[in-house]
């Protein structure tokens, strides 16, 4: 399972990274250290620590399922309409809402099944179709569904309550568990594990083709791709794949209008350099700590450049080298929550999303969704590990061609997130070379207001928009649900920009 890379080949670049980057060097490395350095263990340890911080405890590190109603000789997509008891007022007649869950048998796989939710709009079936991708890599999109922008949220007694700011109030909303092995998506074949954006985007494109075939009444609607965190990698690759498919007339045309990245990792070379500056600006570290950490940046940049040209082992070296920058900051930051620096983590716990696992593991819920005995893997450490070679890749490179063809992009970021901070995102957006770059960088910053109060600062030109969201961390729809819904509404209607001017968004 995972990478099949010789031990020496992976250990050597790590040892080089140690010498170059002042990672803790000891005269005689212990057995525990060599285990940590091993590619078969270290990324999984990182993932397991991250999963624990969300108070999640998946039973398995990867979803190895069995048949869930998608036989090999049957239809590729098997979907069912489900009903659950929700509390509160959805804003429309529940009987008129279509809530669907299903499995799609991936064609370019041995045995992979992709699970998804589809929620028809509470407003109008003519609303855009919006797909949401959660990052990790390897975390289920149910995290966003129940804690950010889905139709309902989970109460403390495990009942569902309607979300007044669910994105289904402005769109027909799809959540997909991907890459395979995440959430309720599963495979029994190791060859189906995805390691890069080609595999991820091809699976999602194949899913869309079958989805719109099953729901032809939505094929004409505007289509938008959204998501956050590591989806800053998924989203540009997926958007490019859809656009490529449309231009080549590979399948049914998909009416792609835009894509939005929330607090994402897209251009690591630029974003990792912003870590010390953001941490200093927000008093997470001192000036002397900033200066010390900044000495690690040249080696990180060089390693990322090597990853972009040589790939393979050099990408793993870049992962270790650059991750050291962030880890050094967190050594100084102590118990700060790196998803929201206004908050502290208590021990290993930064958020408590455990009710999601409890809810989805109930037999009644599993039967309603049609997943049978398939296990729910909230976050997969094996998927996380499998994508390590992809981590330091620059996904900005495919975006200019999309902008030139009129595909809209929105990059938004909560101002208190450290790990995918607004400063790093602003820098790569401003540095991106496209025909409108000069005009975008010179464009004034305007106020994004909700209910007469400034909710963020916005910069736009042509197909490109950047929004810094006030009073929010990594998960903007969770921290500022009303502002996030307004953002989606206005962006998809082309009315995101405001005329109210404020101080300029700094990019230095």
From TrEMBL:
- What's the name of the protein? Carboxypeptidase
Please indicate if the UniProt record lists Protease as a keyword. Answer: yes
Q: Ion transport: is it a keyword of this entry?
A: no
Q: Which domain of life is it from?
A: Eukaryota
**GO terms (BP aspect):** proteolysis
**Any idea what job this protein has?**
Probable carboxypeptidase.
Keywords, ordered alphabetically: Carboxypeptidase, Disulfide bond, Glycoprotein, Hydrolase, Membrane, Protease, Secreted, Signal, Transmembrane, Transmembrane helix
Q: E.C. number, please?
A: 3.4.16.-
The EC class name is hydrolase
Where is it located? Secreted
Q: Which Pfam families match?
A: Peptidase_S10
Could you state a single Gene Ontology molecular function term?
serine-type carboxypeptidase activity
InterPro entries assigned to the protein according to its UniProt record, in alphabetical order: AB_hydrolase_fold, Peptidase_S10, Ser_caboxypep_his_AS, Ser_caboxypep_ser_AS
- Choose one Gene Ontology CC annotation of this protein and give it: extracellular region
Q: Which family does it belong to?
A: Belongs to the peptidase S10 family.
Which stretches are transmembrane? 7-27
């Amino acid at each position: 399972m995972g990478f099949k890379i010789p031990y020496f080949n992976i250990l050597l670049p790590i040892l080089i990274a140690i010498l170059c980057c002042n990672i803790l060097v000891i005269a005689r490395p212990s057995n525990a250290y060599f285990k940590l350095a091993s590619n078969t263990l270290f990324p999984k340890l990182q993932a397991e620590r991250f999963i624990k911080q969300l108070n999640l405890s998946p039973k398995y590190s990867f979803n190895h399922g069995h048949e869930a109603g998608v036989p090999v000789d049957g239809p590729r997509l098997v979907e069912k309409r489900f009903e659950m008891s929700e509390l509160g007022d959805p804003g429309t007649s529940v009987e008129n809402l279509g809530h669907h869950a299903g499995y799609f048998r991936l064609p370019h796989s041995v045995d992979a099944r992709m699970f998804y939710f589809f929620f028809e709009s509470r407003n109008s079936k003519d609303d855009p179709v919006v797909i949401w991708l959660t990052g990790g890599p390897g975390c289920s999109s149910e995290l966003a569904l129940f804690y950010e922008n889905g139709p309902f949220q989970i109460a403390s007694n495990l009942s569902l309550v309607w979300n007044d700011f669910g994105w289904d109030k402005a769109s027909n909303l799809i959540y997909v568990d991907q890459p395979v092995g995440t959430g309720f998506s599963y495979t029994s074949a190791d060859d189906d594990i995805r390691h890069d954006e080609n595999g991820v985007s091809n699976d999602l494109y194949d899913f869309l083709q079958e989805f719109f075939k099953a729901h032809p009444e939505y094929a004409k609607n505007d289509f938008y791709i959204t998501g956050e965190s590591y989806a800053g990698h998924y989203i540009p690759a997926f958007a490019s794949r859809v656009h490529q498919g449309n231009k080549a007339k590979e399948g049914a045309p998909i009416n792609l209008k835009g894509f939005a990245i929330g607090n994402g990792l897209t251009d690591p070379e630029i974003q990792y350099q912003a870590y010390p500056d953001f941490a200093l600006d927000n008093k997470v570290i001192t000036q002397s700590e900033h200066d010390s950490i900044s000495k690690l940046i040249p080696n990180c940049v060089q390693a990322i450049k090597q990853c972009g040209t040589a790939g393979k082992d050099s990408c793993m070296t870049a992962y270790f080298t650059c991750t050291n920058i962030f880890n050094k900051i967190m050594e100084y930051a102590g118990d700060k929550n790196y998803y929201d620096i206004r908050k502290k983590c208590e021990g290993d716990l930064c958020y408590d999303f455990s009710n999601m696992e409890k809810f989805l593991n109930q037999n009644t819920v599993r039967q309603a969704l049609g997943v049978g005995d398939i296990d729910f893997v909230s976050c997969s450490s094996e998927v996380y590990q499998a994508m390590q070679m992809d981590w330091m890749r620059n996904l900005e490179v495919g975006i200019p061609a999309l902008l030139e063809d009129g595909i809209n992009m929105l990059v938004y970021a909560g101002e208190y997130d450290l790990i995918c901070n607004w400063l790093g995102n602003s820098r790569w957006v401003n540095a991106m070379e496209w025909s409108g770059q000069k005009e975008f960088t010179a464009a004034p910053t305007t106020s994004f207001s909700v209910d007469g109060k400034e909710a963020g600062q916005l910069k736009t030109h042509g197909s490109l928009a950047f929004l810094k969201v006030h009073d929010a961390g990594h998960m903007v729809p969770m921290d500022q649900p009303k502002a996030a819904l307004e953002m989606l509404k206005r962006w998809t209607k082309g009315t995101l920009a405001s005329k109210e001017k404020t101080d300029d968004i700094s990019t230095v």
